[in-house]
Amino acid sequence: MSARELHVISNGQSELERFARIAALIHPFVTAFHIRENSSHAADLWAGILALRTVGVPLSKVIINDRVDVAYAAGTGGVQLSYRSLEVQAVRRAFSRLRIGRSVHDVQEAVEMSEQGADYLVYGHIFPTASKPGQQARGTKALGEVVKRVPIPVIAIGGIKPDHVQQIVATGAAGIAILSGITAADDPLRSVKDYREALDSLEEVQKVNFLNTELKFIPKNL
Predict the structure, then answer these.
(1) Is residue 221 part of a domain?
(2) What is the enclosing helix (H) or strand (E) of 149?
């Protein structure tokens, strides 16, 4: 049973150098860092990637939103696509080395993107969040429906706090993605540890439950 994933996403409002400084502190606890800067040029994204590498963040953990060219040229671990990006199947054919994520918002879209060859999906927003004012949260029930319908990992996003992690994991989701909950926190290191500890503690509980179940089927005379 693999560890639950923790993705940290830049918010498009702060300098990538600041994002890199935070990443330097927290990267041992994080699965992936997404550079999501929709208004930035390729040169700005390149500078952000170099900043992350300079502070010791492995490029295998870096995911670039939308800009497949930048991700491939820089040798990052992957790319995160949306409805505005190239199709998943096109990216898969041309850039087979990259781990490809796709943001989705309903079951039908999730199934289609999985069939096109996405490696994982990001689904949300799960809980109310200031970044989506006036938009209704989709909730954990809808998240569970997506998880059931696709064979690839689903990462939950949107308004997630450490207290929500148990609800998220209960759906079968592979992990969580966090924006301001970590990068805008007064103490990003403490915040990321809270999320990581919540994910890992549930992982341990599941392992114990799994082992207890297996033990029930071992003959007592062995």
Answers:
(1) no
(2) helix 139-149
